[in-house]
Protein 1
Amino acid sequence: MLHNFLHGASGTITPQSSRHSPEPDSDGMNTSNNTPPTTTITTVPTRPRKRIVVAITGATGALLGIKTLLALRALGNIETHLIMSKWAEATIKYETDYHPSNVRALADYTHNISDMAAPVSSGSFKTDGMIVVPCSMKTLAAIHAGFCDDLISRTADVMLKERRRLVLVVRETPLSEIHLRNMLEVTRAGAVIAPPVPAFYIKPGNVEDLIDQSVGRMLDLFGLDTEGFERWEGWKKE
Ligand SMILES: Cc1cc2nc3c(=O)[nH]c(=O)nc-3n(C[C@H](O)[C@H](O)[C@H](O)COP(=O)(O)O)c2cc1C
């Protein structure tokens, strides 16, 4: 039973995990062709191009997490697994027009933060990495200490031990020596610290522009191009 939870193929869910959107079309077959097939096609379960875990914690900047999910959805053929902390739900309600249930609906799978048997809690469940966006100092500290008492810190721990991409969009200011030390040490352990520091050279018209640029640069770290922001290409002639 537990084996099934931990080792299932794409689509496996645990009692506390849920799935929202259908698997994207993957076979690319032309169904309008009237000629009957002459060969038997065996369907081999294929994994989407990328499978990314998105965790949202209770640091301010809930919209960063929401826009990350939207960008991954827009890219297509990327399977997203979402974990939200209790305080993420509170900041989503306070800072945005979204309800946490609307945010969950943006992901392919959502996992309860207390569900330590969710597929993402095991290194044997293959993923292409995890982004914690925004990442609170509390979750940073838990990841730094390897203290896996919730699914976010456990999954981040898995990313580090499996040498997978782990991006922490840490958000706090000013930073204490404890914060800086934790960031340095998780970087040494393999994580990428990517604070949502805006690039003003894009001459943003509004906050959305700044967020799109930040999200675009974060997803660059997974080899994904949102094409949703202007890149620096040298001084522009007026
Ligand atoms: C409106 C609001 C904004 C917050 N902003 C931050 C922040 O920017 N950085 C941070 O580390 N914690 C911030 N916190 C505190 C965290 O929510 C708190 O430390 C919480 O325990 C984090 O838990 P989590 O990482 O499990 O979500 C904020 C809390 C609230 C209510």
Protein 2
Amino acid sequence: MRDPSIRRSVALFRAFLREQTDPEHCYRLLARDAAQQVARYAGPLRGRVVVDVGGGSGHVTEEFRRHGAQAHLFEPDTGELHSRGRPPAGAVLADGYLLPLADGVADIAFSSNVLEHVADPYTFLSELVRVTRPGGLIYVSYTNWLSPWGGHEWAPWHYLGAERARARYRRRTGRAAKHTLGENLFPLHIGPVLRHVRSRADVTVVSARSRYWPFLTEAVTRVPGLREVATWNLLLILRRSP
Ligand SMILES: C[S@@+](CC[C@H](N)C(=O)[O-])C[C@H]1O[C@@H](n2cnc3c(N)ncnc32)[C@H](O)[C@@H]1O
């Protein structure tokens, strides 16, 4: 599917709506889409060393392998790792803050929807940069706090406050919410992250865009204030400086 395009965004949105009932379809589609995005910036994936950090049960790792990449999954949560049964071969139980990798080993460091789940996103980013070779690519996407999806399973009620939104989720579903603000979900915005990556000497920003929007994907991230609500999910493509 062409990116950006209305057809692609509609297909992704439909898959999100079916995430609870058909997670396999949703995550396979997202993985295919993400691998295509990476290939557009990095070129053919065959033979490339890819590290998928916080890759959950490994949909994206498997997709990169289907493209012929040497993809490696790093995930700190055994529950996530085994949520579909057997994780991809060679998966490593590891925290993204401290990857068991030498400097510059990866052609591509990939992290999808993890940054808003870590308390210190800048240390996490630094670790992705450290393991990427000079000239290599870093793909990072996250759902920012003021996105309509910022509260995750309790969205969009997070606009009225996290505690209230969580309590509402419990009342409505009878289940405790997976995410708790300040524990495994953090209110990460777009402006500070953009300022951070632009100020770093060890990366250049190739693209800062909305990951899922069908149009104006880069323009929307340039407007302070508006971008916090309208971007939905920020995708950063960074190149490691030589
Ligand atoms: C919303 S899931 C995203 C999974 C997958 N990357 C995707 O896009 O479908 C967030 C993942 O981040 C992982 N995570 C949380 N803290 C982490 C950390 N410090 N280092 C690496 N991964 C972490 C979680 O265990 C979980 O698998």
